[in-house]
Amino acid sequence: MKNCLIQEQGQTLIEYTFLIALFTTLIAVSSPGVRTATTNVFNTVVEQLTNNVEVIAEENDDGGDDGGDVNENLPWIPIELNQFDENAIYSAHNVTLSGSSKIYGNVVTNGAIVTSGTSTVEGQTSEFSGYDFNFPLPVFPTISGDSYQSKGSYTAGWWPPPEPIIEDGYYSSLKAVNNLVIDTGNEGETRTIVVDNFELSGDGKISLSGSGKLVLVVKDQFKFTNDVLFNNGGLPENVVIYYEGEDDLQFGQGHISGSVYTKNSGISFTGSTSIQGNIFVGGGNVTVASGNVNLADALLYAPGSDLNVTGSSSIEGRIIANSVTGSGASTIRFKPVQLDETFFWELNP
Q1: Residues with Cβ < 8 Å from 41, sequence gap 6 or more?
Q2: What is the pLDDT of residue 348?
């Protein structure tokens, strides 16, 4: 079962290089008949490998590439995140289910899969897999408020009507209890807002105008509660929130369409919260608790975090976590997800 789940996705480029070198040697030393047969096998192997692996071109000694149409600038990402991988969960330790919780999809874990009650995994499983759990975090950008014009403290309230944000800026405090419009500019442009303390509460809404992207950098406090909306109905790839605070990032109740990356903290989702977008967790744990929390089209990438899903909460997408616990009537369902190009990794260590 282990081979079925992880053989193709867990192969390393070193193994591919060894195979190619072996076939090359056979070609060089064989008789013409054997050489021809070996060449045919070699071509078949190369075709199979290139159908499943993104290859980065290497330069020759003279500075040119080695030919072909291979893009030498392709970034490195964990191979498990590519479109060919169909596993719902990669976990470094146990996956534990109780109550009527369910996982719909394949599970690869270096620990055990423990179920009780009517909980089940409806998919292929690989326990104690000995998997190379190599999931470094993507680069967290350094974005300083000193690089932008200081805007002081701003509250988008009921009176006077809030003015839209039309340029980059640094705010000591940004609060919205009414509809705040942020103009992101033209396609290909990015609106960058750096905030010490951010709050979306009351009847707060943040809507985007324009065709660009919004990057929101929160340095300290983040408050998100009371049926608030952030880019509701908009494309999730048009919003990225970077959170640098030490306290856990808490989504109390509301909807956000966008991706989130915490540098140091965990994340807690409660109430009737829904998020459509990718979630990267750089520290602490992840709690998807009680109420009706829905993470849709989500890559939950938290390799150092323990994930706890309770109540009637659901996650639809893919999960990378230190451990996974499901209870109550919670569900985790595999769905292919699109990795936002905003997130990138340094070369695989």
Answers
A1: 23
A2: 55
Q: Report the C-alpha dihedral over residues 342, 52, 80, 237, rounded to 10 degrees.
A: 20
- The CA distances from residue 189 to 171, 259, 293, in Å, are 20, 17, 32
d(CA 243, CA 236): 17
Q: Report the b/e string of 215-248 with b at 16+ CB within 10 A.
A: bbbbbeebbbbebbbbbbebebbbbbbbbbbeeb
Alpha carbon 279 to chain centroid, angstroms: 5
Amino acid at 235: L
What are the structural domain ranges in the chain?
A: 2-74, 87-334
Amino acid at position 127, single letter: E
pLDDT at 31 over 60: no
Highest mean pLDDT among 64-78, 81-95, 108-122, 247-261: 108-122
The residues that bridge with 222 in the sheet, in sequence order, are 198
Report pLDDT digits (tens) over 81-130: 887 899 999 999 999 999 999 999 999 999 999 999 999 999 999 999 99
| Distance, CA of 269 to CA of 56 (rounded, Å) | 39
C-alpha dihedral (290, 202, 200, 300), degrees to nearest 10: 20
Mean pLDDT in the chain? 83
**Distance between CA 55 and CA 165 in Å, rounded?**
43
- Give the whole-angstrom CA distance, residue 165 versus residue 169: 9
